[in-house]
Design goal:
The protein contains eight helices and five strands. It is α/β, with parallel strands linked by helices and 233 residues long.
Length: 233
């Protein structure tokens, strides 16, 4: 285990499978983790309940939920009056950018994380983006993360003064969903606490048919493990 016990990290925590795994990874590397979630007007706001559970169970030093209403712009099935696609085949999910893409979401989220990291004196941000089992989002690609990291090191007082050299960690970026699940289980993640569905019922039950539910189901099946949320999302 790498020991970074004296170092702080901001961990973007949605409450989903990937971000819970990333929090576990950061903790396993000895970082003091400050979890950051967003209430951004998302259709699937139930995920914030999951984020609270995950942050508490996995020992985050602090968990904050920033409120920003991206419904002001819409343009996504997650923040506007657009139906969430259901029952798509893998080849359909692999084509183009889906309507569940939220314009500039990761750029907005990383900007908030950058601000908090500077205040905390933290040089590390952890993010659960994935470039393999992902739904075509342009802000999940390695080249995007590298570009934001370069920008971030030009954008802060701490960076200009040489007190901070920001690193954005994306430990899941080249893993399949099955590999992510296997890694998380090895680190003690309880995936029964997480929520992945884009269109859950009012009580949080996953729809089982949106892209996120289907990718999660595929990951657990390929890992040969039963999803604690009954094999759906």
């Amino acid at each position: 285990m790498t020991n970074h016990a004296s170092r702080r990290a901001v961990v973007l925590l949605s409450g989903g499978l990937d971000s819970a795994t990333v929090l576990a990874i950061a903790r396993s590397e000895g970082y003091a983790c400050f979890a950051l979630s967003f209430a951004y007007g998302q259709r699937h706001a139930w995920e914030l309940k999951a984020a609270r559970r995950v942050a508490e169970a996995m020992g985050a030093v602090e968990h904050r939920i920033a409120e920003i209403d991206l419904r002001a712009w819409g343009g996504s099935a997650l923040t506007g009056e657009i139906a969430v696609p259901k029952g798509r085949a893998p080849e359909e999910m692999a084509e183009g950018i889906p309507v569940t893409y939220v314009p500039a979401r990761n750029t907005i989220f990383l900007s908030f994380a950058l601000a908090w990291a500077e205040v905390l004196g933290a040089s590390d941000i952890f993010l659960g983006v994935n470039a393999l089992d992902y739904s075509g989002y342009p802000d999940c690609r390695p080249e995007y993360i590298a570009a934001f990291e370069r920008m971030a090191n030009l954008a802060t007082k701490a960076g200009v003064e040489g007190r901070q050299r920001l690193k954005i960690h994306t430990p899941l970026i080249a893993l399949t969903k099955a590999e992510i699940i296997t890694k998380g289980l090895a680190l003690g993640v309880d995936y029964g606490m997480t929520s992945s569905c884009y269109d859950p019922a009012p009580d949080g039950r996953p729809c089982g048919a949106c892209d996120s539910c289907l990718l999660r189901k595929k990951g657990f099946a390929e890992a040969g493990i039963n999803d604690p949320l009954n094999g759906a999302s």
